[in-house]
Amino acid sequence: MIVLEKPYVSDFLIDTIQKNNFYVLETPFSKELLPNNCLIKEQDAIQLKNELFYSNSENSIDWILKNYPKEEICKYIKLCKNKILFREALKSIYPNFYFKKISLSEIEQIDSSELIFPIIIKPSVGFLSFGVYPIKNKFEWENTISKLKQEIEKHKGIFPDEVVNFDEFIIEEIIAGDEYALDAYFNENGEAIILNIFKHPFFDDNDVSDRIYYTSKEIINNNLDNFKEILNKIGKCCNFKNFPFHIELRVDKNSIIPIEINPLRFCGWCITDIAHFAWGINVYEYYLNKLSPDWSKILSKADNSYYYFTMADIPSNIQKEKIKNINYENYLKNIKNPIEIRKINPKQNPVFAIIFAKTNSIDEIKNILKLNMENFIDF
């Protein structure tokens, strides 16, 4: 069963639902998107047993936890959403990984000399990059905590507590290496089935944004086997089965370490759809129909291009209600070969567009990382 919630559902997902007759929970939001014959009423949905669940948004988590409290899916969600529980579950794989739980009230009281820098602080239950700050040394600590408090005040109440909760934080070591993101699911046997692999570049060491991710034949060939091996270890530790997820990893010469795992969904804002544009894979069909990609066959037909998606983010210092216009024409001059352009309402969301594109130049991707997004916003 699929649970649809804000902030965004792509036409591609809607078409997939209708073509496959997938169950969708009837809510005020889903009723605006789909005809009645695609919807299942709440009282009937609650009676479903042994159902595969998927959601486009973590805003649906509260409903799942409330209505399926004894199902395994709720244990998985709680374990994934709480970064502290997740780290504790993986201690047998990463026995020397440094992390520390801290409450919001304790943050100002902590003696920074007790911490092992460099570190990163983030909500133990979080989403996107809200409340996430890397800190290099104890001299940066006080300034960072001041910024964190301001951000908490700005974003408090926007998301349910099950999605973002600023009451408890995790401090952990900064993980070295290149960052990757995966969309995958554990099947009924607990085996990890990988549907998407992206590389996540950053502008500099202080950048924690989700502006751009890209994939390529080379990226998948070089990482598929190693990523599957580590996912299977994680799945065994957590006993995951029949479970879709989006996971972020850091990779260096000596290790593959997860940053976090997001339950019940693939890459947010439906940008997981890039698998369709790049590889001809419909990730929703693959998961809900229990299919596994034949990557050797798929990649044998692929060229050497980079496929990427970019989220045209609105800087956090901008007051959205003052936005009068987005200059899409100027913004799109930075993207030579767009595949699909999805315009987003900038007054209600943290982005004004999601773009899927193809390029043969890594410089195009690097240039997008450097853009000052205020240049495309009129007030």
CATH topological fold name of the largest domain: D-amino Acid Aminotransferase, Chain A, domain 1
Distance between the termini: 42 Å
Mean pLDDT: 93
The CATH superfamily label of the largest domain reads ATP-grasp fold, B domain
Name the poorly predicted regions.
Answer: none
Which architecture of the largest domain per CATH?
A: 2-Layer Sandwich
- Secondary structure category: alpha+beta
What gyration radius follows from the Cα positions, in whole Å? Answer: 20 Å
How would you sum up the major sheet?
4 strands, antiparallel
CATH class of the largest domain: Alpha Beta
Shape: globular
Number of helical stretches of at least 4 residues? 14
β-strand amount? 25-35%
How would you describe this structure to a colleague?
The chain has three domains: 2-80, no CATH class; 97-173, ATP-grasp fold, A domain (Dna Ligase, domain 1); 178-378, ATP-grasp fold, B domain (D-amino Acid Aminotransferase, Chain A, domain 1, 2-Layer Sandwich), CATH 3.30.470. Helix content is 31%, strand content 26%. The chain is built from 14 helices and 18 strands. It has helices at residues 11-20, 28-31, 42-46, 61-67, 72-81, 83-89, 104-107, 138-155, 217-238, 274-279, 283-288, 295-300, 328-332, 362-370, and strands at 2-3, 24-25, 39-40, 54-55, 99-103, 119-125, 133-135, 165-173, 178-186, 192-199, 212-216, 243-251, 256-263, 306-313, 325-326, 338-343, 351-359, 377-378. The strands form six sheets. The chain has a four-stranded antiparallel sheet, with helices on both faces. A four-stranded antiparallel sheet has the order 10-9-12-13. The chain has a four-stranded antiparallel sheet with strand order 11-14-17-16. α5 (72-81) packs across α6. The mean pLDDT is 93.
